[in-house]
Amino acid sequence: MDHRKNFQLIAGPCAVESKSQIFRLAKLLRSSGITHMRAGAWKPRTFPDTFQGLGFEGLEMAREACDQNGLRLVSEIVDVRDVDRAASKIDWVQIGARNMQNFPLLREVGKHSKRVLLKRGFGNTFEEVAGAYEHIQTSAIGECEIVVCERGIQTFERSLRATLDFAGALYFRSQFGCPVFVDPSHATGKRELVAPLVAAAYVAGFDGAMIEVHDAPGEAECDGEQAISVEELGELITFLEIARRI
Ligand code: PEP
Ligand code: MN
Q1: Ligand nearest to the Cα of 42, by number
Q2: Closest ligand to 97 CA?
Q3: What is the rounded distance in angstroms from the CA atom of residue 88 to the CA atom of residue 39?
Q4: Roughly what angle, to the nearest 10 degrees, separates helices 166-176 and 126-139?
């Protein structure tokens, strides 16, 4: 099967920042041709004095913005206590890198979700990714589609935010057989590397990519330096459309 035909692009801001921001972005993403919007309501940040997300209020805003624009919502749940209430509002529940081995959270998300985007922890092997996958799968009630996302790991190399383990992810995909996405935004921390790496992921035969997009990246509450603009997203989508026809 040629996975390139089904390559899926998930795009959106790192975080829901306000009602006007998320409604504005949802509309722009929809008119660019995006079908799945990412937007975090809870942000796992390194330091507590930084923006932590708008929580349930932000989730409601993102849900409404998606519904109004015919978009699917990809959003992270970080706390096991929120799963019951939050999962029904999210189309693809994201497990973030920091929570990949939070087993109670994995089991609860498995129980409540139909689709899960499982991010590889930045200190985890693919064997551990497979273990996390199985925790979700064995807790699922009925069908639960799980997609793994390579978002870079921590190595001795410090020039970028993380080291995108392209080869490891591709190998895992061939051995394990589940869909694998790539997140070049969190892997590199640099917006100029996002489009080239999405193009590379497409050519390599990954199932999709998740990227951060903002209409004013310089003003973003978090991760602005790795967010591409809506115009750059348009160019990337045009590139993928042309590549699909070749
Ligand atoms: C995110 O995608 O919003 C995120 C926090 O990424 P990660 O868990 O990969 O750091
Ligand atoms: Mn982010």
Answers
A1: 1
A2: 1
A3: 15
A4: 40
CA distance 113 to 127: 23
Closest atom of ligand 1 to CA, residue 14:
3
Best residue among 75, 93, 94, 149 to mutate for probing ligand 1, ranked by most atoms within 8 Å of CB: 94
Ligand index nearest the alpha carbon of residue 120: 1
CB atoms within 10 A of CB 64: 16
Residues having CB within 6 Å of any atom of ligand 1: 14, 40, 44, 76, 96-98, 119, 151, 186
Cα 104 from chain centroid?
A: 21
Q: Are 182 and 165 in contact (CB under 8 A)?
A: no
Total residues belonging to the chain:
246
Helix (H, G, I), strand (E, B) or coil at 18: coil
State the amino acid at position 28 in one-letter form: L
pTM, 2 dp: 0.98
Average pLDDT over residues 10-32: 98
- Say whether 37 sits in a helix, a strand or coil: strand
Atom of ligand 1 nearest to the CA of 212: 2
Integer CA distances (angstroms), 102 to 47, 86, 166, 242, in order: 20, 17, 24, 41
* CA distance linking residue 154 with residue 160, whole number of Å: 10
State which ligand 1 atom lies nearest to the alpha carbon of 43. Answer: 5
pLDDT in tens, 194-243: 999 999 999 999 999 999 999 999 999 999 999 999 999 999 999 999 99
